[in-house]
Amino acid sequence: MEKLKEALSFICSSSFLRMALLWNIALIFSYFQLLKNSLFGSKSSSSSSCSTHSHRPVCVITGATSGLGKATAFKLSKKGFYVVLVGRSSHLLSKTLSEIKMENEDAQLKAFEVDLSSFQSVSKFRNSLEQWLLEADLHSSVQLLVNNAGILAASSRPTVEGFDRMIATNYVGAFSLTKLLLPLLRNCPVPSRVVNVTSFTHRAVFAGRFDMDSVTGVNFSKSKQYPCARIYEYSKLCLLLFSYELHRQLHLMDDSHHISVAAVDPGAVKTNIMHELPSYIQVIAFWGLKILGLMQSSEDAAESVIDAALAPPEISGKYYFGGNGRTIESSALSRDPKLAKELWHTSCLIFNELQQTYTG
User: Fold this and answer.
1) Per-residue pLDDT reduced to its tens digit, 124-181
2) Alpha-carbon distance 300 to 323, whole Å?
């Protein structure tokens, strides 16, 4: 009875209406774009094996202990990458290492316990990664960074810095990690790549502010009821705007596309990301999408991430969706260069403040 009351209370919230209505419309619209592209001859971005060198390429995957991240780690270990798994739970990291090894005994793996919502933890990981590369006698570089970690929180849990934990994990952490690992990505002897895993839910955002209080989630904490759907959509929009602006910034510095950037939307995937929501809601969401034929397994959805990860280096600034190397356009808001620059500026201010706080 208690679970039923919890579910009914959530159904009456604005977050449920956004998820049930706007998110489904956004997902269907993305598939409509795929159909339109196939009918009118828009070409898919070709996918090819990633460039290799005499050293074993290193790949860093966040959120690698479950769902999409875990499936991606499995697949990339079979592509010859030395896969660095990043996750919050040491127990789940150990379990994932064992499972990958059981399926692929030749897999080269390393695990690091990291909390993406904490800048201090992310910064410590960068230092630990550099030290490990040195001690393992590996080239001091990263060829592929997959920013996959993400949460859908049902309640407000501020970080030590006072940020909203969902935004801190889904966006600020990814931005900070990318900034910190850029030297290692630049140091790669072959073209390297950043892949940001975003979501069709970004289409549910029709306007946005990108000042300090918005990007850290402080503005959302002023709401009477925690707006989990709005925050999740916003965090994924930020990740897309960041992807496009990072592509532009890198292209201005280096026309050779030494570091390329791709955003990927895996669609609706059967993972545990909704585990904080009432169990009845989880069941309704799963079966609704299953009946519509839109729910995918993590293994199938990971193919889109692999497409984005292994596409030729000249293909940068694209939005992958639907597998088979296919790309579509994200929302007009996510492609607004003025908003992207505003977000970039604010994110850099946050990053610099955090760096000064923790490193002096």
Assistant:
1) 999 999 999 999 999 999 999 999 999 999 889 999 999 999 999 999 999 999 999 9
2) 8
3-state percent breakdown (helix, strand, coil) of the chain, nearest 5 = 55, 10, 35
Angle in degrees, 0-180, between the axes of helices 337-359 and 228-253, rounded to the nearest 10 = 90
Alpha-carbon separation of residue 130 from 89, 136, 238, 257, 301 (angstroms): 21, 10, 28, 24, 31
CA 230 to chain CA centroid, Å, is: 17
Q: What 3-state class would DSSP assign to 215?
A: helix
Q: Are 18 and 277 in contact (CB under 8 A)?
A: no
Q: Which residues lie below 8 Å from residue 315, measured CB to CB, with a gap of 6+?
A: 45, 46, 260, 262
State the sign of the Cα–Cα–Cα–Cα dihedral 100, 106, 112, 116. negative
pTM over 0.85: yes
